[in-house]
Please model this.
Amino acid sequence: MIDVTIGTTSVVETVAVEGIDWSIAAGDYWVVGGPPGSGKSDLLATLAGLHRPLKGTLRFFGSDIAELGEDDFLAARLRIGLVFENGGRSFNHLTVAENAALPLRYHHHAQTVETDERVKKILEAIGLAPFANAIPGQLKHAWRQRVGLARALAAGPEVLLLDNPLAGLGPQESRWWGEFLAQLSSGHEVMEGRPTTLVVACHDLRPWTDQGKQFALLKQKRWALIGGRAELTCSNDPLLRGLLALDFSGGQPVG
Amino acid sequence: MKSVFDPARQKIYLPAVESSSANPPDVERAPPAPFPFRFLDAVGRNIIRFIQTAQGLIAFTLITLGVAVTKFNTSSRLIHPLIRSQIFRAGLQLLPMISFLACALGLMIIGQMVALLTRVGAQSLAGTVMVTVVVRELGPLAAALLVLARAGAAYVIELGTSRALGEVEALEALCIDPIHYLVIPRMVGLALAIFSLTVYFIIVALVSGYLFAFVQDVPLLPGDYFKQLAVALTWEDFALLALKTCGFGVIITVVTCFQGLAQPLRLEQVSGATTRAVVQSVVACVLLDVLFIIVYLVM
Model:
């Protein structure tokens, strides 16, 4: 689905990530770990098409984006959804329902009735229906994060990128996210039962060890480890052990 | 054509706009020099800063106009209501204030001028003077400045805050062109609002001005007054009025949106960007006005 070979990607004259050679296949559930500042968010932004690798290639659904025309590039990007961290960067000049409806109304020129039905279905699925007419800024952090998810799901993406979705959430809310993403991965009714490919970036690997199917570790903007659950459990990488114990003090395991 | 924020064109547009940002960084400072050189140094820095700002504004204007043309009918279901809301915000909501301003200026300037012209026996020139002062100059400029104060300044704060909070990047992630979604509705709305407010301002000012002259017992019949206005007005006045007011709308939108959007901002920088946008908008509007004066003189 997405093949990325990044020599270097820079954001505002700063190297974001480099030396990444990665392929995401349909149905994958990737968990990308790394301490804060390791380049996870920039990697996701690159995968979402927001940044382009300065060196290397980025292929969306088999096509090199450097060779895609504007319309084809846009069409490819629409198949990828991105959920930002810290409340999902929802728009406070719109209600929750309008936030979710925005991509549909902009890209699909959908009739109001069709949009409303789709949005209602999504909001009900993720528990936001009671807040449909609220402004995201009035909601608690946990609900705002779900608004970001609703907005990303509205256009029906095949690949969903989530940047640190559990940041600042309590155990109960984290459990909901884990269960919902597992349903998305296996095929949720809001996506018409189609399995969604997931890429989750996080700095705390603990909630994801049972969830993810594939794992990668970013260290100083480069891959430190990549593989399945077996590689994760067998690795003695001090950074990985630190992430599993949520300790960033020099990568030394805790306890 | 894609906007400045479109990643597909990011490498083309962003250097053009961001390197010539509205608040360019200081050029690396040399060791202190004697006074005349320090003065020249300061002048040089300001000239470079001015050129960089002008370059950025021109690039942003061209991009905005390009998006306006290429995406003229794209996502109209979403964009048209936004344009209507901007007209309401920058136009209808300003009616009470523009009424007050038009009445006050009508009384202060027009009423006194008609009275003065009548006293020196030049009341036959009243229509010409009115058209020159109110229709060509006072009306468009007063409406533009009022809209700038009320809506333009708010645009910088809204867009600057959106940029600082990452909402603009979120739009890009949804493949929504921020220029198309955020700038175009404001530009069209503001242009139409300033044009409509100017027409309203002119009518109210001319009527209130005559009423003031009437109270002063100026021997000028309403029929004569409005006949003089009708004779003095030419079709070029209407065309240039529309062009000028729409030009003011485009300028105010481009400058305010440029300051709010076209550069990475932190929340604490938004107030500074607002001040810069207001000053630059006033200067740009006055420059456009001067351009139109030259056109009027040539005609």
